[in-house]
C-alpha cells in the first residue's frame, strides 16, 4: 500500500502534464523500436514493425507512471487485467528472468527481448 501512495506522489498533477509525459514516452519508445529494426537482432521475426508497434502500445498502457519501466506494482496490474494473477514471488521471478540490468523492473528493451526472445512468456503467449 505504501508503494501505491508513493507512486501517486510521483504522477503529474494535471491531465495535460500526464498527456505530455505519455507523448514523450511514446517518442522515446519509437526511437528504441527504430534502433531494434536497424540493429537486425530480431530480423527473423515476422512483421517486426507491426509487433514492435503493438508491444509499444502494450508497454505504454501498463507503464502507469510513464517512468519508462514496468515495476512490480504495474506488472501485478497487467497480469490481473489479463486474468493471470500471480503471487508476489512469481512476479519477482518473472521480472528477474528478463531484468538484465538488475533494476528490479522491466525496461522497454527488456520487454522487447521478453516478447521476441526464445523463452516462453506469459505475456507473449496471450493474443491480447
Taking the sheet with the most strands, its summary is: 2 strands, antiparallel
Distance between the termini: 28 Å
Poorly predicted sequence stretches spanning 5 or more consecutive residues: 1-6
How many strand segments? 2
Radius of gyration: 15 Å
**In DSSP terms, counting alpha (H) and pi (I) runs of 4 or more, how many helices?**
7
The average pLDDT value, as a whole number, equals: 84
Morphology:
globular
Task: Give the proportion of residues in helices.
Answer: 55-70%
Question: Notable features of this structure?
Answer:
128 residues; 3% strand; mainly alpha
Q: Would you kindly provide a brief summary of this structure?
A:
Helix content is 65%, strand content 3%. The chain has helices spanning 2-10, 15-39, 48-62, 72-81, 88-98, 108-116, 122-125, and strands at 69-70, 106-107.
Question: Can you walk me through this structure?
Answer:
- The chain is built from 7 helices and 2 strands.
- The chain is mostly helical.
- Strands 1-2 form a two-stranded antiparallel ribbon.
- α2 packs antiparallel against α3 (48-62) and α3 (48-62) packs across α6 (108-116).
- The longest helix has 25 residues, at 15-39.
- The chain starts with a helix and ends with a helix.
Amino acid at each position: 500500500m505504501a508503494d501505491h501512495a508513493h507512486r501517486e506522489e510521483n504522477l503529474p498533477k494535471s491531465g495535460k502534464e500526464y498527456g505530455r509525459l505519455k507523448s514523450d514516452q511514446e517518442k522515446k519508445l519509437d526511437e528504441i523500436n527504430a534502433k531494434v529494426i536497424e540493429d537486425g537482432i530480431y530480423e527473423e521475426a515476422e512483421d517486426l514493425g507491426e509487433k514492435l508497434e503493438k508491444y509499444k502500445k502494450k508497454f505504454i498502457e501498463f507503464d502507469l507512471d510513464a517512468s519508462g519501466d514496468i515495476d512490480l506494482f504495474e506488472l501485478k496490474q497487467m497480469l490481473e487485467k489479463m486474468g493471470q494473477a500471480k503471487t508476489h514471488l512469481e512476479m519477482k521471478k518473472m521480472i528477474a528472468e528478463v531484468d538484465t540490468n538488475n533494476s528490479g523492473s522491466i525496461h522497454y528493451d527488456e520487454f522487447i527481448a521478453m516478447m521476441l526472445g526464445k523463452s516462453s512468456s506469459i505475456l507473449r503467449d496471450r493474443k491480447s
